């Protein structure tokens, strides 16, 4: 995915920020799980999110789209407390969690599966799972591990193998399984398909669909746009740290302009402006 909406494309009718609620979309506050309210956030003096406002519905899969540098991963890191907003608020179930640390956010039910590999390679599958549940206590963790292994039969078969000996797909499944030990109400996942075969990607997508159908709110960044839209409920597009589009996933998938909007390289995002100290 190389670009978001063309700068000459009118997307104002598709955004739901400061606008009337489109037909078919509920504006019931109880539907909203996550909200960014005019958030400014980034790295040191460079802000990636620029006055960003967005809403994510409860129990749905929401796909974050946009070109490189649009702020997709920054949204996840800000929500998980790895970055602190300079301005604005981040809300979970209507409660301001801006500036909370990852440990407290885990306790509130938010789990994060970041991009790349984030396992302890020299430890076994079982040991990685046990560490994933360290905040639960040993008894609860050991009670929950069997239910996680049922979701991932291939990982279960490698329970005593070192994580480094697993295939890329098995490692990603182990990462997701480790996050699910916490029984999160919100799952953040960044580029789950990287390095995986198409068959394994579909396995991961089916699992995410199952989790959402059971009530988990999933916020995902994914480069495989068309495949992700097929299993997502809603799509939010960012450009230069701002929301440019929020639509139902199936509507966007059927849009004849989807190639131009997201896959056709419309234009490069503007560089983030430095913020005065």
Structural overview:
Strand 4 and strand 5 form a beta hairpin. The chain is 32% helix and 23% strand. With 277 residues, the protein is α/β, with parallel strands linked by helices. It is built from ten helices and ten strands.
Q: How would you concisely characterize the structure shown here?
A:
The protein is an alpha/beta fold and 277 residues long. It has helices at 72-79, 102-107, 125-132, 138-151, 153-157, 168-180, 198-213, 225-231, 249-254, 258-263; strands at 32-43, 46-57, 61-65, 87-92, 95-96, 110-113, 186-190, 217-221, 234-239, 242-248. The strands form 2 sheets. Strands 6-7-8-3-9-10 form a 6-stranded mixed β-sheet, sandwiched between helices. A 4-stranded antiparallel β-sheet has the order 2-1-4-5, covered by helices on one side.
